[in-house]
Structures are given as C-alpha cells and as structure tokens.
Amino acid sequence: MDDDLEVKGPGYDPIADEFATYEDYLDSQINGTDVYYLEDVELARQLVELGIRGNGEVIRREEFEARKEASEAARQARLNKKPKKLAGQGKHVEEFPLLQALKDREEAVRNGKLTTIVFIRDKNSKGQEVSGYIDYGHRLKTENCEPYFDRKKRLMPRPSDLSFYNWETQMSTSNPTPNFQVIADNEAGLLFKNKRDRKVINVDPTAKPGDNSTRTELETAEYAQVVVYDHVTRRRS
C-alpha cells in the first residue's frame, strides 16, 4: 500500500482521486443485490449516505467535497516543480508566540508528518468573544497564510473551522476537514479523530490528549487563550 501511495505522490487521497463525484462514491457502496431489491438507484444512494447500506463508515457529501478540494490543491502543488515557499519562511516572529509556533510546525504539517489543531479564544472585530479549534494543515492548503506571518491579518476561528463558538450570540458550528472528524455529543466532551491513523485527540485540559499527541498552552499577549495540539501521524498498517 505504501508503494502505491509513493507512486501517486504526496497528498494522494484514495477516495477523492478515485471518484469524480459524490454519486460515484455512493455507487461504489451499492451492490447488485441492493439494486435488485430496491429497484431504485437514487434510493440506494440515500440509504448508503444515511449509513443504512454500504461497506463500513461512509463519508458525508461536505467532507467528500472538502477532500476533493484538498486533493486538487495537492495535485496542483505536484505539478509545480518549484519547491513551495513556506508561508513563514524568513519571517521574524520571535516576539509573537503563536506565529512562532506555527512557523516552527509549518513544514512538518505541510509534508504530512504532523497534524496540528490550534485553539484560540479572543474577541472578534465586533468585540464579541469567540473561540474555536482550527485545523492548521487545512488552513495552509486552502488559503494564503503569509499575511498572518506578516501580521497583516490575525488568525481567528471561523464558523467553517473544526469547531466555532460565539459566546455572545451562542452560535455554534462544527465541520470535518480532510484531516479530522469532529466527534461531538460525547460523554468525554469534544473529540477530534485523525482520519489518517484514526487516533482520537481529546481537547479536555484535565485529560490526556491521546496517543502520539501533545497539548501546549502558549503564554501570549496576542490572544486571551491559545492552546496547540500536535499529533504525529502514522499511516495505518
């Protein structure tokens, strides 16, 4: 399996690269018996999407689309023969703990050796207290992060991140990314499952973060609170 991944190149996603559309992915979970008894392909697809039929855990449409976007970004990066410049390369951010932490991790996150979740709590531009968990790797792939290191933009949680909460409006969102699945409504609290090695990261400050994971709280004047969760990813055997 590892040899196949090397041939395909870094960033290869067996689901996103194999299936052109979400419907194609659902169809791969349908067998002849399903079609024979249901007599309706669309109904069979709906049952697969709901998890009633199919083989194992089925990803949702939103996650499939996110993985397609990440896969295309990875493909474009492979086509570019020039080594990609790191967003934090050459930036002097020693006096800004979060930016320094992100700079130190960027290369390892980009090459897939490390996945990093950043928890930030602070006030937004409207003066509202917000908090959230950011998939650093996903941000690196989906936006230009250089303005953060140039301090032209502030890294802040968004409703599109792994988890987001506005303490004033009580708006709450959670979203999977190509790197993590969000496990909410759990007795252990909010959990994030790494999609590569299936290990779970526990963000409860009173609990251990999990296998191959570390929790680092940064002392910084940049934000009210910043916690960095690092997970060393290991491909499943």
Give structural attributes.
about 240 residues; alpha+beta; 2 domains; six-stranded antiparallel β-sheet; three-stranded antiparallel β-sheet; 9 helices; 9 strands; about 35% helix; disordered N terminus
Structural summary, described in words:
By secondary structure, the chain is α+β, with helices and mostly antiparallel strands. The protein folds into two domains: 14-80, no CATH class; 97-232, no CATH class. It contains nine helices and nine strands. The protein has a six-stranded antiparallel β-sheet with strand order 4-3-2-1-9-8. A three-stranded antiparallel β-sheet has the order 5-6-7, with no helix packed on it. Helix 7 (97-110) packs across helix 8 (136-142). The radius of gyration is 20 Å and the shape is globular. This is Cilia- and flagella-associated protein 299. One of its GO terms (cellular component) is nucleus. May be involved in spermatogenesis. Keywords: Cytoplasm, Nucleus. Pfam families: DUF4464.
